[in-house]
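Entry 12.
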Amino acid sequence: MKKWIIIIGSIIVVLIVIGVLHDRGYLNFKWTTLTNIFAALAGPYMLMKNKFFNRNSVSSVQEILDRAKQGLLEDEEHRKEYDTKIEEKENQIKLLEQRIESLDSKIQTIEQQKANVHQEVQAMTPEQMMIEFEKYYGNEKDD
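Predicted 3D structure (tokens):
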């Protein structure tokens, strides 16, 4: 509680001093002047804040270091997890590529057979064509 009273009291004193200097005409506030004043006031404020609230203690620094180490360990676990997922996906991609290659070879084989069938049909006599037709579609005369 004393810390807050000291901080609030020092802020009030600083504001009163700035108000009196401005009222007497010693300070003509422009944005740059005001910015410089606030920057000058920030230094002592940070000093008081660090002194009274002791933000830079050994325990707080150690706590920050421990959190950073824990974060690094978690990052390592996530990286391993994603590496295994990536490896699984790459294996799936390889299997799919192999299936595509086998299907491509089947397509090429069928296209070659199609070309050969056309040539075979061109070379057949009409009697051979009738025999092959009956073999695939049956004889309509017998029905």
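Annotation: The CA atoms of residues 50 and 56 lie 7 Å apart. The chain has a mean pLDDT of 83.
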